Amino acid sequence: MGQHGGLDCPSFAARSGKRPGAGALAGATTQAGTAQAFRNFGSGDPPSAAEVHRRAEEPLAAQTLICKLIRRMQEPHRYADEGKAHADPTDNGRIPAGYTYFAQLAGHDIVHGAMTTISLADGSLPRVNLRSRPLVLDTVYGRGPTDDPISYEMPEAPGELREKLRLGHIRMTEPGKPNAACPVYTARDVPRARIEGLSDPANEGAADTLLTDPRNDDSVNLSQLTTLFLMFHNAVIDTLRSRSPFPDDVSASPELLSFARFSLARQITAAVYRGIVVKDLLPRLIRPEIWKLYNQARPRPLADTPDGRMPIEFCDAAYRLGHAMVRASYRMSRQTETFGVRDMIETSSARRARETPIRDIWVWEWSRFFSIDGSRPQLSRRIGPSYNAVMLYDSLFRNAYAPGSGDAVDPTMSGLLYRDLVRGSLSGLRSVNALAELMPAAVLDQSRLLADREHRIATLRAWLDAGDTVAFEPGERDAIAADPPLLFYLLFEAAQEEDGKSFGTLASVITADVFAGALEQSRDLVEEARDPVAGITTEEAVAHVFGRSVPETMSELITFVAKALKLESVEPPFI
Known about the structure:
Elements: H1 10-16, E1 36-37, H2 59-73, E2 91-96, H3 98-108, E3 128-129, H4 138-141, H5 144-147, E4 168-169, E5 187-189, E6 192-193, E7 208-209, H6 220-242, H7 248-251, H8 254-285, H9 288-294, H10 312-315, E8 329-331, E9 338-340, H11 341-346, E10 379-381, H12 389-393, H13 416-426, H14 432-438, H15 441-444, H16 448-451, H17 453-465, H18 474-482, H19 486-498, H20 505-521, E11 530-531, E12 536-537, H21 538-546, H22 554-564
Antiparallel strand pairs: 1-3, 2-10, 4-5, 6-7, 8-9, 11-12
Helix pairs in contact: 2-13, 3-6, 6-8, 6-22, 8-21, 17-18
């Protein structure tokens, strides 16, 4: 069988006359060797030299100019309505903080294996995308319980197979002493382990995450978001156990029933997840005027020509706008104080194993990250040419692009923004001018900044000259304004066009086109699939579990999980 949770079970076909998983996630899948190279947005062919962002001939010159640009970006951006609605002028009232990490999870579900070292000397970029069937929650399920069993719970009864995704138990604040505030439910973390008896050096904590995609433990915020989807799948499994849609000949065999239940639960979970991406996530990220062009039952790309390969303009520019959305601090629940983003990023099995499994102080109270029953969650940071200080300078993001050993003389070269800008300058991205020429009239009509090159150059020049911390030479200023690094431009347009509350026009089209193409590419695994065991379509399977109350937003999904798993009144608080 395939690798989307496929099970090599020849007895199933013999006994039931059905082929398990045909046309659905358990059977139609990514096969080994289907990794794909990247391409440029809008074309299956490499762009001409005139269409690519111009690289400086000398790497040092490129580094110097990028560092000056970052010092300009260090200055707080003056948003038009700052101070009118929120105490913090960088707060984005349109996007609660939880969507920053839901967007990151969705990004991991589209791209995997793209990150490689780029040589500053020759700009080589060996990279492939291993995620050839995107947006089906491969980032959560991996290859399924047969090929990735370590991520799945042991069977519940003799003869059954693994069905549920593993969860990790949190640690009480006072080890060895029961926490009166947390007596009920502690399986609130991603699965982690400390494996004894191996050749590894002795270590404290749980240095190994049992996730199929370890990137989902890049920060405690992302691991908490991932935990929610592990719980969601398990809640769907519980529903299918209590209300089975399978025929009697399947139900008579625990092994066959177990396989069928996992397969259908995965299909249902993926369908709900994709619906939330389209109905809740993308409308928040995408500029409203541009989203109107996509907002239909089956969104289609407006400018790109998808062929299964991922545009590097998405990976190395448009979707890195999420780094600008990261707050400087977060409060996890009513029981905790505020934590800085550095601690949030470092609290993971890979970075700070001694702090894992995580303590109860890190567990999310979901109403602080999404609006649930009128709650006022903390907000994401506005999207603009300004990051929080950790993203700008912190040594947490040391990278291969700084000269020598990686210890940069200029502190500007130690931050995530520097790494992102250098990567984008070396990746062979289309220039802003070339991308503008690909846009249809309906898009250009919404953006003078994109449609009018002279206006764009003048606006960029004015912003560069307005800085207090750095003075650009005329040649430097003109070079950036005429051919800005794509990531910088996309940050800039978000601030100019949407006051930082969503992506701007070009970032919106690149992002929405990629998501629309990814959804279309895998429709046969979800929306158009028919479960051959239960004999029902995906739509019918979703209705079997949820009736008329299918979750269409993150808030509705959280509420469903809380009710299904009896978490409404637990401590630490769930909602």
